[in-house]
Design brief:
globular
Length: about 350
């Protein structure tokens, strides 16, 4: 229990602070205990929503983070908090409104506080562009894991082995993504279709650019090692993780407006969730959970593929965030169960083998 608390102490303290701020704001804005409690309940629901939508994010973060040196791990878990909490949960919605309405950031802030209905309308008006960009980026993240000719561990074998075999075809995952985006765009009005396609292509280009930067930095590090230099870098992974975090937060930020159009309430609720996702990431890395549970990473990447597909499809159809979170949770839960079964079988075989003991 003490070990578990060590990973989540800061998140719990942060939660108490946010709930305290929420109680003060609720009492000031509504003037009643009932209004304050109602507002606090929304903050709690938003935080739970964020965690349920982002558990797969924590697993994927951990899979990248475990390959980074300790210095860059700490930088991601400290500097990255400011980006995830303040950047994506507060600045990002304001930036959307400022761009969509052609106003300044301070005017967007004033709009969020004094005219929340209009603020919500402007954020939702940018949904197609966000769906295209975020969906394309996340779809590429997921497909990259499965379209890998060197991948030798398979969870859903009949599918994953087939994807591994066709991975030798150059850029097959990009072709599939572009075909999917084109198919969805044909269902949209002309103006929306153009926005969707352009945003999706920008998401794809962003993924390729981040991959290129990471590969370039790895080549530089390898060259330095060959020359006998000591290299401890992880900027490429740091950049990749922050963009990945941003893409994961799109659906949470947009979905939050289904519960509240108050920017302060949304920021407090989503920030609590984001902090717990960070704590889960640290827990997974420090405890070596990914190595212990063989298929957990597979479940997370399948959840990312599904989330990317849902974001792309949401340009045409509204898909409740509850369904998104439920699908992700089921996939990760099943992969965890499969991992436990595999571990038990291995332990049983090791116990009965002639070399045991």
């Amino acid at each position: 229990m003490q070990t578990l608390l060590r990973f989540y102490t800061f998140s719990l303290i942060f939660t108490v602070i946010c709930l305290g701020l929420g109680a003060w704001y609720g009492l000031e804005s509504t003037g009643t205990i009932g209004g304050m409690l109602s507002l606090l309940w929304i903050i709690v629901i938003l935080s739970v929503l964020e965690v349920s939508l982002s558990f797969d994010n924590a697993v994927v973060n951990a899979s990248v983070l475990k390959e980074m040196d300790e210095v860059w791990q700490k930088r991601f878990l400290t500097w990255g908090i400011a980006f995830a909490v303040f950047g994506m949960r507060i600045v990002f919605p304001l930036a959307i409104v400022a761009i969509a309405a052609g106003i300044g950031p301070m005017q967007a802030l004033d709009l969020s506080l004094n005219d929340p209905q209009e603020y919500e309308r402007l954020v939702n008006s940018a949904h197609i562009g966000i769906a295209g960009f975020g969906g394309a980026f996340l779809a590429m993240v997921g497909m990259k894991f499965f379209f890998n000719a060197d991948k030798d561990v398979h969870w859903i074998g009949v599918i994953e082995r087939s994807l591994t075999r066709v991975a030798a075809l150059p850029a097959i995952e990009i072709a599939l993504l572009l075909l999917g985006m084109w198919g969805i765009s044909t269902l949209l009005p002309t103006e929306d279709a153009l926005t969707f396609i352009v945003s999706g292509m920008l998401g794809l280009v962003t993924f390729i650019a981040v991959e290129a930067v990471s590969h370039w930095l790895e080549m530089k590090e390898e060259a330095a090692r060959m020359a006998g230099a000591v290299v401890r870098s992880g900027f490429g992974g740091f950049l990749y993780l922050n963009i990945l975090d941003a893409s994961f937060s799109f659906d949470g930020v947009i979905g939050a407006f289904a519960l509240s159009n108050n920017m302060i309430v949304i920021a407090l609720g989503l920030s609590i969730g984001a902090m717990f996702v960070r704590s889960m990431t640290v827990h997974l890395v420090k405890q070596g959970t990914l190595a212990e549970y063989r298929y957990l990473e597979h479940g997370a990447f399948w959840a990312i593929v599904v989330l990317g597909a849902i974001m792309l499809l949401s340009a045409k159809w509204h898909i409740p965030e509850t369904i998104t979170g439920l699908i992700g949770g089921i996939l990760i839960g099943l992969s965890f169960w499969w991992s436990v079964r595999h571990k038990r079988r291995e332990d049983a075989l090791n116990a009965t083998s002639p070399d045991a003991g």
